[in-house]
Amino acid sequence: MKKLITLVCLPILLLFIHCSSDEKTPEEEIPVVEDNFIRAADLSFLPEAESAGAVYKNNGQNEAVLTTLKNAGCNTVRIRVWKNPSSIHSSLVEAKILSQRAKQAGMKVWLTVHYSDTWADPGHQAKPAEWQGLNFTELKAAVATYTTSLLNEIQPDIIQIGNEINVGLLFPDGHLINNEAQCIQLLQTASATVRSVRPQTKIMIHFAGLNASDWFFNKMTTVDYDYIGLSYYPIWHGKNLETLSSTMNTLGQTHNKKVLLAETAYPFTLQWNDWTNNIVGLEDQLIPAYPATPEGQKNFLLEIKNRLKQSPHGLGFAYWGTEWISFRGSQATNGSSWENQALWNFENNALPAIQVFNKE
């Protein structure tokens, strides 16, 4: 009798188990939480470093940079692109290949368009050589055509229309102080192109620093864009992190935009690994609470991340010079001015700051 009861009850028990495990109501389904906070690494030097034979490590073992970052929680790769650079580096061809690698690794792509053949920054916004002879109408058309090609070739998730355009872009035509109306028209042209060609791509406008950012973004009110981009380096933009928070919150509230910290970095040492002068190398360039040590670098970045996450306007951050180690060798005078701020140490091993890319 005991065996008979067992046999009769067994199908009922199996049926109960089947129903309880597989036939869940919609209310019981575990929701998928979308990862919207951007934890980005600028990897624009990576192809050049790899072509020079650089080998990156994690826990002492050789490991691809994208693998290390992805496993750490990095979800976006920031990539710069120049119009017609003197070499393949930072070209559309190289940027496209790197963007494909990032996507294959499961990361989003943030494209930084310099609208120049070389570095564009607050003091340098030179037009591409092939655009030098264009009148303003032709220049706007060239911006639209070029932006279209970038969108079609790379299909970025975020596009930064101009890099560090504190006083405009495409000088002299797009100088914000000397030719404000033309500067705005150029940005409107780039923005309208994005909305038309690839509307799902988010548009960011980038100001390097904190001081005068209110003046700058007040000028941008007629440009259609999604994200405010700021840079923050203590050496150039001050050592008061409260200023960073207040600036971010004021801009976000005033313009009803999300704010991205488009660039930041911090040293893990004040030593050097080649004969190229480093940007940061003195104690008085540091925030006292964050010494130039691996833990100091990590804690600085953690504080930055936490301030962004605590802000109702903060959307994320990008670490700049992530991979810019001394890949030309220890004797190079044209090597890295950033190797002590990279996220790999002088033995090319990933530093503790990598952990700050985690989702929490």
Please tell me about this protein's structure.
The chain has 360 residues and is an alpha/beta fold. The protein has an 8-stranded parallel β-barrel, surrounded by 5 helices. Strands 2-3 form a two-stranded antiparallel sheet. It is globular. The N terminus is likely disordered.
Give me some keywords for this one.
about 350 residues, alpha/beta, two-stranded antiparallel sheet, 10 strands, disordered N terminus
The end-to-end span amounts to 57 Å
Mean pLDDT: 92
How many E-type strands? 10
Instruction: Going across the biggest sheet, name each strand in turn.
Output: 1-4-5-6-7-8-9-10
* Quaternary structure: single chain
How is the main sheet built? 8 strands, parallel, barrel
Structural class: alpha/beta
Number of helices: 10
Which residue ranges are poorly predicted, with pLDDT under 50 across at least 5 consecutive positions?
1-32
Topology as a string of helices (H) and strands (E): HEHEEHEHEHEHEHEHHEHE
Radius of gyration in whole Å, from Cα?
A: 24 Å
Strand content: 5-15%
The amount of helix comes to: 25-40%
The coarse overall form would be globular
Question: Secondary-structure blueprint of this entry?
Answer:
Layout: H1 2-22, E1 38-42, H2 46-51, E2 57-58, E3 61-62, H3 65-72, E4 76-81, H4 92-104, E5 108-113, H5 136-154, E6 158-161, H6 180-197, E7 202-208, H7 213-219, E8 227-231, H8 234-237, H9 241-255, E9 258-264, H10 294-310, E10 314-319
Parallel strand pairs: 1-4, 1-10, 4-5, 5-6, 6-7, 7-8, 8-9, 9-10
Antiparallel strand pairs: 2-3
Helix pairs in contact: 5-6, 7-9
